[in-house]
Queue: 3 jobs
Job 1
Amino acid sequence: MSILLTGGSGKVAAALARQLKNANIPVLVTSRKGQDGAPAGFQAAKLDWFDHSTFEPIFQNNKISAINIVGPLVPDPAEHVNPFIDIAVKHGVKRFTMIGGTTMQKAPHWLGKVWMYLDELKVEYSVLRPSWFNENLIESPHLPTIKNEGKIYSGCGDGKAPWVTTEDIAAVAFSALTKPEPPQEVYNVLGPEYITFDEIAATISKAIGRPVQHVNLSGEDNAKRIKSQPIPEFLQNIQIWLEIETAKGNFHDESMERGIEKATGRPATKFGDWVEQNKSSWQ
């Protein structure tokens, strides 16, 4: 029996695939191109969220015990994910994990509709709600501005967030997918400290030995920055809202349960340690 990972080329799924493989647990990743789009060294199955005819063959050709869901980047992913879950359950899959975001709720909008459906089906499932990914700092739009300008742009002001590594997110998913007992319903997957963009810039600057400055943009200028990024409009709007709310301090909640510690029994990776491990990205 294999564990199936949707979103196989994404940051969290790739980290989770490595962790499962290192633990000698059979893993099957998905790709719209099937095996041709698979990471090297991994078996793959073809999955196209927008072509529901690709769903059934995955389970006809493979024995799947559990699934990690990374839904399509559309306003209503339940339109595609819920029928996929139906087919998986029909073929005996009893456990699911789903990657969302810190603000995701079990409610009839976006991935919350999938969460509600998993709950209705009474299957074993766990929803992971990670904070902002550290790895976003080593890809566009932040990577080129840090490398070429010595600047990192945001509209977050002095607002703080508990940035987290994708390896830690994957470790929580690993635990939820593989532990003998049913996983808890929700894991808030947070880094160990709440930090500002000023602190992010200072930490990177110290690691690479040259100045990096946080440029705090006005709401209008930050919206223009985000709207210029090549991502779907609804995600642009979510990012704008997240940065506005972060600037207001609305996501600074030290009382939230720390899911990494709860799931794995070890502390989350400190931001400074992660920067040291990845400083060559900005040099």
Job 2
Amino acid sequence: MTRNIFDLRAMSPKDRCSERSRSHLSSAEIESYTQPFLNFLTENPTVFHAVNTVAGRLESHGFTALSSREEWNYKITKGGKYFVERNGSSIIAFTVGSNYKPGNGAAVIAAHIDALTTKVKPIPTKPTKAGYVQLGIAPYAGALNKTWWDRDLGIGGKVLVKDKSTGKIEARLVKLDHPIARIPTLAPHFGAPAYDPNPNPETQMVPIIGLDNSPIGSTTTSKDPESTQLQGGYSFASTQPPRLVGAIARELKINDPASIVNWELEVFDTQPAQLGGLDKEFIFAPRIDDKLCSYSAIEALIASTSGSTTLNDSQPTDGDGIIKIVGCFDDEEIGSLLRQGARSNFLPDTIERTVAALAGGQCSPDLVSRTFANGFMISADVSHAVNPNYLEVYLENHAPRLNIGVAVQADPNGHTTTNSVSTAFLQRVADKCGSKLQVFQIRNDSRSGGTVGPMLSSAMGMRAIDAGLPQLSMHSIRATVGNLDPGLGVKLFKGFFDYFEEVDAEFA
């Protein structure tokens, strides 16, 4: 039954908060997520920037940061909101319902926040060739493909800086987001080499980052005015291109480049995310896979626990009895095997420590296993949208469209977690929150990709489904989604959190 404003006024403040937080998103509310998502993509070109921004967003909505290196007992309470980072490139956020009881389930959304990119090599200095200064880079996953040619590329990432007064090493983020690098194509006038379908990524896809005054044909490393300040003994900076060190030092206001201990830098597309189409119904953007589902999941968790925007975000969460969790992991594109990846202990350990803290420090294997068994996970990764120019490669009735909603991803060979029970579960969630589900499965003569779903659900024994928003041009440096898709993701994911207990009660 739909409640009117008078019904809400007659309810207690606590019940009003619950009713507002469970309300369906309107069309205007769905569209309100479009521009913030564009800003998120443009302003956070590296995984470190993305996680840092998510952490700040969570803090602004009353979430408390936890440290994995400290004890959590007595820090986590019913009604609380928390997050924990790992490596500055993965983040897990969660809330505890005020009616939580030990052994109750967890509603989990797992996504990956890394994207295809190129990374600066440990010692990227290259000999100057024909007057060009170049930079040594390496592809991360399937990047450095043909879509990276002739793009305006910036440089950014995490820089470790030693404070000489304290001796402490801190991580700082840097973003040189004006065009710095470019991988130039060879003009077609040169014949066969210009049409080579398999250019050498080590020798023919090296970006140019500047010019020097060396004679044409020289292969010697150029001298640079700033290189003199790097002399006088070994430092990390002395192994790096002097002009790059100078640019980063200026951006971070570092007076002594020798205080730079190390860095992890990415080369990224600087063109902003933007709306396109006759009626601006598209989003054209870099790094959509899978910052899209990560963004929608985080916003859904915030919306599910914040109630109305007129309410104080620092107040306790609604009166549910579960733990609501969003995990945004790094390294999915390369197998998730590192400590910040989904295949690590990050998510199971976070759940176990949370359950232990809520049980007064007394956590048995039985209690953790019941939490997993009573839980449900959405593995949220982008799916393939139908491409009108290649309809023949799509399986009939399994071709998702843009601006419709999340697509359930099925695969008969275990590349996804989807089965009949999990599909029925999410369909009931969609029914309750007014969302529409699509379905994708690849043809028998094509190869399916993988997600974080199978590795996480098998590690925890948790019921799970793979479902994500569809996009065009997956693994291109720029991709396309619908302008409403970020908000449609928020709508379904929020509904999952809001209606989890009701839907779970329908299943034996």
Job 3
Amino acid sequence: MEHVLQNINKLNRNLEGVIAVGNEFGAVEALWSQFENVMAKEPEQSENGGAERHEGAEREEEDEHARDNAVREQRS
């Protein structure tokens, strides 16, 4: 029984390490997502002023923070 418990603990530590590595790419993913959204806009939409882009960037940041908080809650 002790051997099984040790193996489960080892597996848990390995999974935590994999999750930590995955979390390091969150900011990169958000940046590429924002880039993709900007590139997907029609040329007329991108000329409509910076206010829309600024609001979109704020929403992206809020989404990123929500994802980070969800990951933290899931890990605890």
